[in-house]
Request: fold
Amino acid sequence: MTDKTDDLDDKLADDLDHTFDEDDEIEWYQPDDPTPRHACPCCDYVTLPERHMYLICRVCFWEDEGPEFEEDPMEPSGVNHGFTLAESRQNFKTIGACHPDMVRHVLPVEDRSQYAYKPREH
Ligand SMILES: [Zn+2]
Reply:
């Protein structure tokens, strides 16, 4: 006998477990023109071809959700594991990634120079 609810929960947990297990490239939304134009709201490197399209910053691995997180950096971001932009900025300063789990995914520090750096005014 199979409990469908348990199966579904297991599958969801499984999916979550595997999200970052693979070492090969993860499939994200890819804009037609991948040229980086916009500074990441977390690390300030110009890594984002488009804004607010859930693109992942290669430098800090912040996921570029909606503009509300820049308007209110204390607002927890669901797609960023519940971290606020303020916390993620602090994480980037201390551990070089927006979130402790993302440290192994971010670009090596020596490779950051391929992106322009535009510190925020405030
Ligand atoms: Zn970033």
In short: Helices lie at 4-18, 68-71, 85-95. The chain has one domain: 34-122. The longest helix spans residues 4-18.
